[in-house]
What we know:
Oligomer: single chain
Number of helices: 3
Number of strands: 4
Distance between the termini: 46 Å
Order of helices and strands: EHEHEEH
Helix content: 25-40%
Largest sheet: 4 strands, mixed
Radius of gyration: 15 Å
Strand order of the largest sheet: 1-4-2-3
Amino acid sequence: MTELRAIETKDACPVAGPYVHPPLPPGTIAYKTSLCIANLKAILSAAGSDISRVVKTTVFLTDMKNFAEVNGEYEKHFGVRGAPKPARSCVAVHQLPKGVEVEIECVALPGGVGGVQSVEESERSVLGH
Length: 129
């Protein structure tokens, strides 16, 4: 179930961390991460944006031992098909709501704004390179 938790402004579309709602499905942390990202995609779509327009993410983990597996799944969805990877923070937390192990929140550009540029592309365009 996707809970729509986004606010779209003319400049940004922040999405509060969607997580997998109980009952929690069995499976690996990678699988649970994929469900979390699927929720993000649904919320962004409903708000008129998409995952390629994400400029910042924050990943919350209840166990940093899961970082590599979460990161492996994350890399399949962010910074693909020519889109730059968003800036990212990863935070270890004591616990997350409803017993989930991973939560990802993001800030995306709204659908009507031009595409996302990486820092390197922005610097080249400003410097004329």
